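ARCHIVE RECORD
Type: protein–small molecule complex
Small molecule: beta-D-galactofuranose
Source of inputs: curated submission
Record status: active
Notes field left blank by submitter.
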Amino acid sequence: MFHKIRRHTVACLCLITILLLLVGCQATEEVQTEPALLLGFSQVGSESAWRMGNTRDIEKKAEECGISLMLENANQKQENQIDAIRRFIAYQVDVIAFSPIVEEGWDNVLSEAKEAGIPVILVDRDISTEKEGLTACLIGADFYNEGVMAAEYLIRKADSLGLDKVNIVEITGTEDSTPMRQRQAGFMDTIKDDERMVVLESINGDFLISRGRECMKYLIETYGDEIDVVYSHNDEMTLGALPEIEKAGFSPGQDMIIISIDGGQDAIDVLKEGKINCVVECTPMLGDKLMETAIKLKAGEEVEKVIHPEEQYFSDEMDLSGLAPRGY
Ligand code: GZL
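STRUCTURE (tokenized, with ligand):
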């Protein structure tokens, strides 16, 4: 009996030893595996569901790709982004990526990154510069087309309602940011030849829910029931504006046509309730393309200069009952 137990014990001990070695190798392997690359990313802030969805997606895709991510939140300040990029340079990351809060003011710090031989990827937003070769590529939405989609919806809506005059107020995103400039340009270029369309005022809401509320309060105090359309550059400002419209006794989606951009779950839910008429999608899910591009740049491969994700719009013209959860 004892003899049998001994043999059994030895067999178990051997099995445990083999398992420990395997796990140990696995662990060792994990310890020894170098990250695919070290990516420094400066994020604008946490101002909207879009921005937080974008951050989550970038973090998730970096982990999936085994990329070591240094992510810094600039809390809406350009100087914080410039400081972060300088830290990434000092740290000698393999690739720098950032979403520039505004288009101007990057020449010096991006020249420093270029001198350090570190490629820079623009994510979401663009920069404006006279200098060549400061960035490797832009991964982000076609904001001009988002403005076009918003305006094309409005023209169809005005036709269906038989409107002969359409008074518009615009609540814009952060002044001098790419989405603000291009969403405005795409929208205004599309309506400019339609004599029914009159823009009463454009006002900066900085992509913030609080500013959307303040802007809408001012616009209602100033124009009251003259307002036929609210064109808002993002869902947060739209969701801030709606209660002000209702407080003034108007029904958003009925008395006023409400057009928004981003396409987050909250706005889609309100669209389904009939209080928003059109939401143009701007996907925050840019992490896949960012990681793929960063890996190519580190390997010295060529990359596309501009990468636009596919985008659509959702409106009261559609049956949205089957729409999948938005994820942001
Ligand atoms: C658009 C992005 C904008 C979103 C806002 O790509 O830059 O910034 O529309 C966010 O929600 O604040």
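CURATOR ANNOTATION: The first strand starts at residue 38 and ends at 43.
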